[in-house]
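As the next step, I selected for study a record pairing a protein sequence with its backbone structure tokens, which the following lines show:
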Amino acid sequence: MARDGDGTNRCSSGSSPIGLHRVVEPVGVLPQQALRLDATPDPWPDEVVIDVERLNLDAASYRQLREQYGDGAAVRAAVLDIVAWRGKMQNPVTGSGGMLLGTVRAVGPESPLGLSVGDRVATLVSLTLTPLRITDGLRRWDGLGEQVPCEGTAVLFGRSIAAVLPGDIADGLALSVLDVCGAPALTDRIVRARRAKSVCVLGGGGKSGSLALAAARAAGAARLVALVPTEAEAAVVASAGLADEVVVADARDPVAVAAAVGDPVEVTVVCVDVGGCEHGAVLATAAGGTVVFFSMATSFAAAALGAEGLAADVELIIGNGYVPGHAEFALRLLRETPGVRAIFAQRERRTGEP
């Protein structure tokens, strides 16, 4: 290994563990920032190539695509166009992507990931930086759900991360959980570090929201508030028993959020897939408290300037999706918390996917 100017150790052939050698344009930026990546499925010595079976588009990206294009066929065409042009799946509006599931096809001799040919894995890095090719035209996807049956190839770098799929959990369910596994792990860390007793989750009826509620409970929170947009969703969350209080409000209406939550909480976790929820989260949080943003629709400017304008002494944290051990932690919550399984099962009945 040789030390390079990017602060990482390049492998013997000159590839970068953070994928700089895969950037087509503009040269010099990280893969996530790049306009286009080289998705050729020939591994460099420290890379892993995956035969893709399914993509999981992140919620904010999929919502935006559905709202812009309307019908499923147009959404499918848009995804194909993005991947064909960019060599990765990165929504040009939201900037977000998702993750994937597949089987390891090839492992470079210098790969540090500990994977073997034939392993079935879920990637724990974003599709926005993962070199990706689609070879089947997405013919098995109707464009009407976040999970995308797919044939193609993807590349993991030396510094990527992936989880071998568990044998006791269905693939689709495991992919849905692993897609958001950073949220419960960081919620656990923050609640424990601050010894917080009151937590509110905006979007408590979703994938990341239900897991965040379970994590907060396991970390010792005594008052859990789940905020959801409809009475129907409130009934589902209440029956799952994940929260002490389930309240209904539009997370984009800060006054309504504050009124619904009532006494401000020490930690607010934002798990919604629409923009405009920053101010409500700030208003719902007590002085000296913490707001954690997991939504890809979050605006840093709106959050920071909104807190300033409200003279709110709150810490703002952007969840980056990675906490050591996050995959195992999320899967354990799923296994041990019947309410989380109930939320995911209800989602599957409603949308046709986990």
Summary: The mean pLDDT is 92. Residues 72-86 form the longest helix (15 residues). The two ends are 42 Å apart (CA to CA). The chain has two domains: 15-165, 182-351.
